[in-house]
Amino acid sequence: MILLSDPSRQFEFIKDKLLGQFEAFISSGNYIMGEKLKLLEQTFAEKLGVSHAIGVGNGTDALTLALDAFGIGEGDEVITTPFTFFATAEAISRKGAKPVFADVDPLTFNLDPAKIEAAITPRTKAMIPVHLFGHPADMESIGMLAQKYGLIVIEDACQAFGARFKGKYAGSFGHAACFSFFPTKNLSTMGDGGMVVTSDPDAAAQIARLRHHGSPRKYYHDTIGYNSRLDELHALILLEAINYAEQWNNQRRLKADRYRQSLEPLPYLQLPYEADGAHSVYHLYCISSKAREPLLTALRQAGVQAGVYYPCPLHLQKAYAGLGYRPGDLPVSEQLSRQLFAIPLHPFLLESEQDYIVSILRNYRGAD
Ligand SMILES: *Cc1c(COP(=O)(O)O)cnc(C)c1O
C-alpha cells in the first residue's frame, strides 16, 4: 500500500538523533514546560520572523486560545472558509462566537476576498483564513479588508509550515497564526501538538497564561484558562524535525512538479494551481476531476491510498444545521467537495512509487 502521507519515514530519518537524546531526557525528570519547549518556541518564532511563539496541546486549541486572547466570543461573528478541516470553525463555536462561511476561490481553494467582503456585518470581529493544503491564502487582499473594517486576522496555518506569500512566511501576516503538529502535517510530532505565533506582546502573554490554567505563576490564576501545553517530549522531536522542514518542503515541491509534468496532459484531471507570489508546501496534492469516483476505485484497487478532502463542506455539516445554510449557498466549496481527491505526496515518496501512481491515472479509460 502506498500511503497518502507517511510520517514514519520522516521519523525514521531522524531516529538516531532522537534515540541519542532519549536517555538524558528520561533522566532529566523535566517533562512539561521546560528548556526544550522554550528553545523550540524561540526557534519557531525566529524562523517565521514573528516575536512570540507559544506551544500548546494541538492545532484546535491553538485556534481557540488565539480567539480567546483577542477577546472573541459570544455575539461575535468570525468569517472563515467552509472548505477546511472542521476544527477551524469548531474553535470559533467553542468560544461562543458564530462562524460565517464565505466561499472559496476555485483554483487555490482558499477564501475568496470578494466573498469575505460580502459577508461582513456590524457583528464581524475577525477572519480566519486557512492556508489550505499548504497553499498560502491571499494575505494581501485579506490584510486590506482587515484594515478597512478593523478586523482581527487569525491565520490557520495548520497545513502550511514554511509556506510563503510574496516572500513572507504564512503565519507572519495576521494578528496571530496557528499551527498543528499532528503526525501527518508537514511539520509534525509523534502525537498531538500545536503552536500559536503572534507579534502582539499582550496576546502572547495572555496565550501563555491561558494554556496553563490562566496562571502567570504557580497556584495563582488570573483568568479561567485551559490545560493545553506542548510536552517536552514533543518539543524534543520537533526541535530535530524543524531542522529538516525546509528540505522536506522542497522535496514536496519537487514531487509536486514531477506530478505536474506527467499528469498535465490528461484532460480529465485539473491539477493544483499555484497563484502568483505563492510558495506552496503541498501538505496534500489535491486533484479535481468529474471522474473522481472511478479514479478513486482504480487507485485503491492498485494499492494506492487516495483521500477525499473534504467530502462535506462545513456549512452543510450536521453540527452546523442550526446556522441555516442550504445546499447551493456556497457552490464552489460544494463542487470541490464532489470533485477533489488527494494522491500520495510526502518528502520520502519514491520516484518509482510516483511513477506507479501516475501510470494508474494515465491508464484510466472512461473519461470523456
Ligand atoms: C489539522 C488541522 C487543524 C487542527 O489541528 P489539530 O492539531 O488536529 O487539533 C485545524 N485546522 C486545519 C486546517 C487543520 O488541517
UniProtKB/TrEMBL annotation:
Q: Fetch the CDD domains from UniProt.
A: AHBA_syn
* GO molecular function terms attached to this record: pyridoxal phosphate binding; transaminase activity
Instruction: Could you list this entry's UniProt keywords, alphabetically sorted.
Output: Aminotransferase, Pyridoxal phosphate, Transferase
Pfam families assigned to the protein according to its UniProt record, in alphabetical order: DegT_DnrJ_EryC1
Annotated InterPro entries: DegT/StrS_aminotransferase, PyrdxlP-dep_Trfase, PyrdxlP-dep_Trfase_major, PyrdxlP-dep_Trfase_small
What Gene3D superfamilies has UniProt attached to this entry?
Aspartate Aminotransferase, domain 1 (3.90.1150.10), Type I PLP-dependent aspartate aminotransferase-like (Major domain) (3.40.640.10)
Q: Which residues form the active site?
A: K185
Provide the positions where the record notes the PTM N6-(pyridoxal phosphate)lysine: K185
Q: Name one GO biological process term.
A: polysaccharide biosynthetic process
Give the UniProt family note. Belongs to the DegT/DnrJ/EryC1 family.
Q: What name does UniProt use for this protein?
A: DegT/DnrJ/EryC1/StrS family aminotransferase
Species = Paenibacillus oralis
